[in-house]
Write a structure and sequence with these properties.
This protein has eleven helices and ten strands. By secondary structure, the chain is α/β, with parallel strands linked by helices. It folds into two domains: 113 residues, Cobalt-precorrin-4 Transmethylase, domain 1, CATH 3.40.1010; 148 residues, Tetrapyrrole methylase, C-terminal domain (Methyltransferase, Cobalt-precorrin-4 Transmethylase, Domain 2). β8 and β9 form a beta hairpin. Bound molecules: S-adenosyl-L-homocysteine (SAH). S-adenosyl-L-homocysteine binds next to α5, β8 and β10.
Length: 279
């Protein structure tokens, strides 16, 4: 076995590292992301990067915010890309830090293409995406042999700001599990379109807000009731929404709730393992 210790790539001056910060818990950072935080001269971060993660940046690093705050309009994507190029050309080690994974609904691809065009050398460091890791923190596996062999990741906003660009009817028929990012604004419309497309109104839904953060909340509901229940419960973004049978698995897998409340999880409350054990 190769027991070579982890040796991080050199973070060179004039380079940009485009890193995922995961959904919130700093423990979900990769070693490469931690190395970048400890070596960056400047950290350009998004709204969804948690304070716990930013706290790991070395004391001398400049933290530069590039996101929407206090209702002010967000900087244009082109301005952010330009800023990364500017900073790199100053010979700085630039850490571009994004919530979750930089290539999952995070515009990381656009920023990387701008770096290519400007001939700025860069590295991509994937992160734990909210639609997988955030759900795991709610005790929901995105796949399970008994429920689904496919999972579909969707954004509830398209580039024009609404959901018109998604073929919801096709997804209602062909996608057993949907994981929806940025779903809250259009949740009622999304649910209606899925039901119109043939998804049952009683399809299980879970909504996880502030996943992997100290104020994580989980709402279990159904497709027909999701929007009203979310409003009644005051579920505030960021939220990841999962539609499909996997949402029910939380009943037996809410490990975080069990740990924090000192409960013992009931073994297989849905009886999923039964057939396999006897069959
Ligand atoms: N690149 C990110 C997604 C950016 S889009 C990733 O891979 O996770 C922003 C959306 O991500 C939010 O609207 C929400 O749907 C989801 N999201 C990100 N962090 C989250 C968190 N901690 N809890 C719940 N949802 C989160």
């Amino acid at each position: 076995m190769n027991r070579a210790p982890y040796s991080p790539p050199d973070f060179q001056p004039g380079h940009v590292w485009l890193c995922g910060a995961g959904p919130g818990d700093p423990g979900l950072l990769t070693l490469h992301a931690l190395h970048a935080l400890q070596n960056a001269d400047v950290v350009v971060y998004d709204a969804l990067v948690s304070d716990g993660v930013l706290g790991l940046a070395r004391a001398e690093a400049t933290l530069e915010y590039a996101g929407k705050r206090g209702g002010k309009p967000s900087p244009k994507q082109a301005d952010i890309s330009l800023r990364l190029v500017q900073l790199a050309r100053q010979g700085l080690r630039v850490l571009r830090l994004k919530g979750g994974d930089p290539f999952v609904f995070g515009r990381g691809g656009e920023e990387a293409l701008s770096l290519v065009a400007a001939e700025v050398p860069f590295r991509i460091v994937p992160g734990v995406t909210a639609g997988i890791g955030g759900l795991a923190y709610a005790g929901i596996p995105v796949t399970h042999r008994d429920t689904n062999h496919a999972v579909t990741f969707i954004t509830g906003h398209d580039a024009t700001g609404d959901v018109a660009g998604v073929d919801w009817a096709a997804l209602a028929k062909g996608a057993p599990v949907l994981v929806i990012y940025m779903a809250m604004k259009h949740l009622a419309t999304i649910a209606d379109r899925l039901i119109d497309g043939g998804k049952a109104g009683d399809t299980p839904v879970a909504i996880v807000s502030n996943a992997a953060l100290p104020d994580q909340r989980v709402l279990e509901t159904t497709l027909a009731k999701a929007s009203a229940d979310a409003e009644a419960a005051g579920m505030a973004p960021p939220c990841v929404v999962v539609v499909g049978a996997v949402a029910r698995l939380r009943a037996g897998l809410d490990w975080l709730g069990a740990l924090t409340e000192g409960r013992v999880l009931e073994a297989d409350p849905l009886g999923l393992g039964r057939e396999r054990r006897t069959g």
